[in-house]
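ok new one. same drill as before - structure tokens go in, u give me an amino acid for every spot. 307 of them this time. try not to just spam alanines like last time pls lmao
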């Protein structure tokens, strides 16, 4: 049996990415109902709202779901304790030292995957005792490593060093992308940009339409000489940040105006290169069903090759 499914209890090894303000119960429960694993974000820092979103999940789905804990941004252990008390079974950790809460989470019987953008990060997480890794290639949307390594190379380099379960993230939107990362050694996939553009995603139509209109060169890596490095859609704002070479964090503060009011110049619109592969707004169920059908077809086709 697929190792990620064993860990999540979901029907398919497909994870919805944690995304500040976006990865909440409306989207996450749709993913769970469609057979994937929905993840509730806590990176927005809106701890009380996120706790309520976690509680809301049990009203919306009886399928398993997970929570993301961005370690650097947690002010204290209240969110960790809340996950333990709420009976959360699957946690992804990111942005920070994977040893920080690993024993509390593992002692509570929670499966922990840590997000890494590099081989070094993977080895540290493995040594910290995580159950699996979310391996994030440079193709993906959101906060990125300044060292730009593509997903397939990253998975293969980690596979040369470890057999730990891997969720592949970055640039995947369909069954052929899923088959490609499985061929490289992944056990599952995580998608952000594809789910942002789904019907159930809470973001404004302007953001979804901009994803549909964009090509594979429609994103920029910004703030490369500082922190955080991000990948976001091209816009007047992001073009000017790229020209300056540095991002003022104030540029980021109006992200909710972009997400929910549709002002595409209010902040950088976090998105991956996969925007160029997304041409239609689909329901989460349609996205997941089509991925599984195509994944099975591609695997059958590939099985015919004998050189
Ligand atoms: C709009 C958006 C917001 C994101 N916000 C977060 C976040 O808050 N925390 C996080 O760990 N990753 C975040 N990410 C990165 C995703 O977790 C994931 O690694 C990435 O989306 C995968 O690549 P893809 O966008 O090509 O699917 C975000 C991505 C997007 C597109």
């Amino acid at each position: 049996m697929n190792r990620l499914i064993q860990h999540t209890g979901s029907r398919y090894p497909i994870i919805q990415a944690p995304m500040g303000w976006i990865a909440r119960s409306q989207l996450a429960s749709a993913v769970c109902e469609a057979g994937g694993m929905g993840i509730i974000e806590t990176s927005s820092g809106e701890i009380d709202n996120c706790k309520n979103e976690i509680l809301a999940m049990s009203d919306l789905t009886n399928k398993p779901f997970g929570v993301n804990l961005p370690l650097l941004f947690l002010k204290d252990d209240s969110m960790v304790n809340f996950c333990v008390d709420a009976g959360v079974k699957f946690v992804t950790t990111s942005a920070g030292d994977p040893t920080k809460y690993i024993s509390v989470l593992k002692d509570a019987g929670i499966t922990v995957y840590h997000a890494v953008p590099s081989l070094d990060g993977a080895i540290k997480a493995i040594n910290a005792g995580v159950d699996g890794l979310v391996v994030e290639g440079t193709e993906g949307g959101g906060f990125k490593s300044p060292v730009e390594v593509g997903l397939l190379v990253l998975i293969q380099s980690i596979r040369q060093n470890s057999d730990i379960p891997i969720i592949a993230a970055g640039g995947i939107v369909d069954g052929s992308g899923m088959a490609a990362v499985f061929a490289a050694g992944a056990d599952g996939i995580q998608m952000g940009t594809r789910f942002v553009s789904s019907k159930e995603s809470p973001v404004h139509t302007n953001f979804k339409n901009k994803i549909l209109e964009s090509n594979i060169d429609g994103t920029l890596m910004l703030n490369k000489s500082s922190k955080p490095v991000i990948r976001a859609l091209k816009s007047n704002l992001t073009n000017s940040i790229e020209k300056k070479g540095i991002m003022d964090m104030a540029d980021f503060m109006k992200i909710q105006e972009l997400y929910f009011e549709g002002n595409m110049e209010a902040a950088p619109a976090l998105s991956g290169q996969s925007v160029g592969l997304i041409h239609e707004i689909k329901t989460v169920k349609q996205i997941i069903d089509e991925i599984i059908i195509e994944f099975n077809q591609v695997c059958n086709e590939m099985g015919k090759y004998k050189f």
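The first strand starts at residue 14 and ends at 16. and btw The chain has a mean pLDDT of 97.
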